[in-house]
Amino acid sequence: MTARQPVLDHIVVLVSYETLQELPEIHKDTFTIIPGGGATTGVTINKLLILPDGTYLEIVAFNKGVDREKREAHRWSRATEGKIIDWAYTLDNPDGFEPIQKRVNGAESDIFYRDLIPGGRKRPDGVELKWSIILPVDADLQRLQPGIAPFWCLDKTHRSLRVPYLAENGNAPAACTQHPCGAQSVSKLEVLAPRAAQPKIGKTYAAIHTNTQGDGTWEYGTHGGSAFPGGVVALGESPDSTVKICLTLKGDKAQKITFLPGVEITVTEGN
User: Fold this and answer.
1) Structure pTM?
2) How many CB atoms neighbour CB 125 within 10 A?
């Protein structure tokens, strides 16, 4: 990972409350899924699938019985359950976001990053986590469809509290990052968007990343060190008017895993 690269933080999968409870058992032979916690607002609850490269899948659901107005105000309220719906970047140094924000806001893409929004959740053990998020918006400061561009999650408490991907000695991946399917890292996150929207989205991605490949892919780093140097974000065409996010992992062997009905994760062989 270089200092200029954004760091892939996590990918968001929205499921029903009932599915969230069932997934650890459903995937006991493929993935290790651990408790996450509830948002401090009480609106959502999650579980985590953490990879050795330090990235993770946040499997999130709306709490049962949550107030309708609070749910409708949430940025994922209109997203479809059973889908990968969003993704987040982070930075080792939060001060590095300002130059990115300026580049994106000046890219003439009609996609902008607004100011920091405080966020957090409480772990099952009672430890409170705090961070700030920055959401992409349009010219009228209205939230965009999730997944078009990454949101940002910048930690106020130490990231290791939010994402326990290292063992206690800090020198090896934690046990919770070891998966029966052998998955190790995220190698590609592909955003499929309508053709008409792709030029503006591409301008945003080029402004975020200083290492544009020129072939519709952009590199990101990870927190996994030299063993996991990172992967690419790719921009492709959606078969309809919606945005779809596809995920490719690297692991011990090539395989396709049905994570949810309609959500297939590709695993390629390699580290």
Assistant:
1) 0.93
2) 7
Distance CA 77, CA 14 (A): 10
CA angle 76/85/145 to nearest 5° reads 60
Q: What is the pLDDT of residue 214?
A: 67
Say what the pLDDT of residue 212 is.
61
The C-alpha atoms of residue 71 and residue 161 are separated, in whole angstroms, by: 26
SS3 content of the chain, % helix, strand, coil (to 5): 20, 40, 40
Mark residue 100 as left, alpha or beta (left: phi above 0; alpha: psi -120 to 50; beta: remaining): alpha
pLDDT of residue 143: 84
> Rounded CA gap, 172 and 156, in Å?
24
Q: Which domains does the chain have, with CATH numbers?
A: 7-269 (3.10.180.10)
**Are the beta carbons of 267 and 183 closer than 8 angstroms?**
yes
- Low-confidence spans in the chain with pLDDT less than 70: 1-4, 40, 211-214, 271
E-assigned strand segments in the chain: 7-14, 34-39, 44-50, 56-62, 83-90, 112-113, 117-122, 128-134, 136-137, 151-155, 183-193, 217-220, 231-237, 244-251, 255-260, 263-269
CB-based contacts of 237, cutoff 8 Å, min separation 6: 192, 193, 194, 195, 198
